[in-house]
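Page 47, continued from p. 46.
Same chain as before, 379 aa.
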Amino acid sequence: MNAAGIEHSRRRIMQHGYIGMGGRLTFAGTVVTMGTLNKNDKETRCRMSDRYSRQTVLLGREGQEALLQTRVAVLGCGALGTHIAGNLARAGFGHISIVDRDVVELNNLQRQALFDEGDVGSFKVEAAARKLRRINSEIVIETQVKDIHNGNIERFIQGCDLVLDGTDNIPTRMILNDACVKNRIPWIYAGVIRYEGMVMPVLPEGPCLRCLLPEIPPTGSMTSCELSGVLNPLPPIIAGIQCTEAIKLVLNKTDSPRKLVVYDVWEQRFNKVTVDKNPHCLCCGKRTYTFLDNPERDIVMGLCADSVQIIPPRDTDLDLEKIARDLAGSVEILIANDYMLRFIADGKQLTVYRDGRAQIKGTGDNGVARAVYTRYLGL
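Result:
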């Protein structure tokens, strides 16, 4: 190893964990003496017992305080959302609000942090909150068990400084994009599928998601993790990039022009694509919010090849325990409590929530799903 290579390695090792330790390291037979930390350096005089001391060295006290004063919404608590929430809590974002509608299932444990086998059957946001409060009891964790749609999303992001995307479908992201641009709240888009993930910060002035993707692709043209899978190491990497962008936004260190980061974890390949603002963009250009202002809510939405979600035209408040009693004897009840009813009927598995939403597994036919829903719920 030549002198330049030794010096480069010395600098990298000093940056990656050996600072302040002193001692001797050997590279290809060459001994390199490591330096010690300068205790008089202004940014390293923080108390080593401080929870954020290793981060404060990088961000400074003012930077860390800025994180503690930041209110963040995490929409979605799955593969991305759980890693996002864990990173934000450990980094010291002072107020984290998490919104998700789903319960923990066994297949979630392969890629969704914060959950373990004991959480199966619990609402994701409640299981996540329990873990997050044990990670950092000095910050505020709020949760809402809700479906995210154009009728309620502005309520979820109200008063937030920043929104991070942990959702799992393009229609919801289009609503999120409209809501954040309209309310002038920065948000960070991300998605993962198979071996690939992508991240893009979106500021209110644009470019926004619709500059990149003007319309929702046709039904059937997009895949999902149920059909295509997602490799376990990918979500934490993409969530880490999201959270880094979040810190940069808080510290006013964002890159310009905006870039879409695409990462292939299998090939270990990064690409950055510059995204230009479209002056004719309906959202950030024309300031019209097509998805947010749509008076019609999707009633039936295919989730994958054998699963359909049904959303009633308006929220309701079902007495799920009464419905379970009424159905007893005619269906196989799997779960019945105040928040969720799951049963098997006509060879389909129905999961029904208090607000009237239902997921029907066992068919990809919207008409069949609607018929089963109506037959057993009468809605």
